[in-house]
Amino acid sequence: MKTSPRRAVNIAIALTMFAVSTLVFLERTHADSKPSVQLSVDQATPREVDDTVQQAIMRDYASAWQALVSALNNNNAGALSDNFVGFAQDNLLHRIQDQQQAGLKTRIVDRGHKLEALFYSTDGAAIELRDTATLDAEILEGNTVIHSDRAQVRFYVVMTGAEDRWKVRVLGAGEADVLQSR
Amino acid sequence: MRNPRFLVLMSLSCLLASASARAGELRLPGSAVAGQRLTIATSGDGEATVYLVGPSQVLKRQIRLGAEIQIKAEELRSAGRWVAILREGGNSSSQVFFVRPGRPENLSFLARPSRVPVARPGAISGIAFVFDQYENLVLQPTPVKFSLSVEGTGASQSVTSKNGVAWISSSSARKAGAAQFVAATSDVSVRRVVQQVASDPCNLRMRVVERNNNATVVETDPIRDCTGNPVPDGTIVTFTQTDSSGRSTVDARIKRGIARAGLPPASNALITVASGVVLGNELHVGSGQ
User: What is the C-alpha to C-alpha distance for residues B16 and B36, in angstroms, rounded to an integer?
Assistant: First the structure.
């Protein structure tokens, strides 16, 4: 049952490669999947947010972030129009154009969102949310990571009802957003 | 043996110290505002690349370390969390900074509905989102004045925005017409038109204007809502005649303010009139009536 040194090295290499590829796969899977979204509606005025709308907001906001992460990672705005509209869409398109011109990409691992509904219009057409998002972000120049951090970032979000879903109309960041970074 | 080692260590320390003294560094200001000029001081020697990555833009600059980086007011458009990255050779260092929104210069105004009956409590809603020049949501409380008027008469109300949004709920006026619904801050106003239309008919009354062997012709008085606005032409008015042979119904449209219908001749019948959910008077027609 003796194992030769060369065989041991081969096994170690194989195990390392398996572990690395598994980690990469898990990381990619995480990046490509819908993030977790929690919603609190206790503060919403002037109208209460009913259960159906709550479910729709969580579903569509998660979908919007999935599209955003993919767009910034691939510098491809293709999926944005399904989830963003107005200023939010314009701003993301600018960011992607600028990234392309500068030769950058942004890789985000989305660790989840805690939403608080602040305003829900009487006619049910618009909702404003405060999002505390936990994001791991890497900025890449070509394939070189030139910045990385994990931060809790606060966003102010306006979503409006569209044909079959809620779309993000405003995605603005407030002051003193970062609660931690590395 | 100790002296040469000591000298080598000292030399290495000096080399490292001089290298670190020349390493580039960005000195970011404590606060930055969208739409205002930004100056970033740098230290170090040599050439470097700086990336400024904001929520909706990326700026790239080739710089000489030691000189200031000037970002023009019109270049700094995006409020929120920015990352400043210094690329020097194969090394990079980064810092996070924040850009605040500028002062309120834009309103996004949602007015609902576009068409509403008069004198309807809480029927009109106005929501104003407050933005700066570059469409960043302004979170600072900002007074927004809402006014709703028809032909110069109306009311206004000032509301302070909270988390970037100000809203009101208002009753429609008593007078029909195109209402001007305006949301305004000190620098900008946005106008929407809400068409206020007559409400349901009020005191719907009819009378027989002609009766012969062929038909009984009935006609309403001019049809108005409860605040005196004429109900629009084209609105359906239903006349129903019931007699011993059954029921006859005629849907007539209001034309020039009144509705008119010809019903089958009957010796003894009850005629009713209605429009939408509003019932009018009843008429008994028969011998001698």
Answer: 39
Helix axis angle, A51-74 relative to A5-32, nearest 10°? 130
Is the ipTM higher than 0.85? The answer is no
- B136·A130 Cβ contact <8 A: no
- For residue B20, give the amino acid letter: S
Return the half-sphere exposure (C-beta side, CA atoms, 13 A cut-off) of residue B23.
11
Residue B113 touches partner A, C-beta closer than 8 Å: yes
Q: Where does residue A52 fall: left (phi above 0), alpha (psi -120 to 50 degrees), or beta otherwise?
A: alpha
Whole-model pTM? 0.76
**Residue A46 contacts B where some CB pair is shorter than 8 Å:** yes
Q: Give the residue among B78, B84, B85 at the shortest CA–CA distance from B99.
A: B78
The residue-averaged pLDDT of B188-205 equals: 91
**pLDDT tens digits along A38-90:** 999 999 999 999 999 999 999 999 999 999 999 999 999 998 999 999 999 99
With an 8 Å Cβ cutoff, are A139 and B85 in contact?
yes
Give the C-alpha separation, B183 to B197, whole Å. Answer: 22
Tens digits of residue pLDDT in A77-98: 998 999 999 999 999 999 999 9
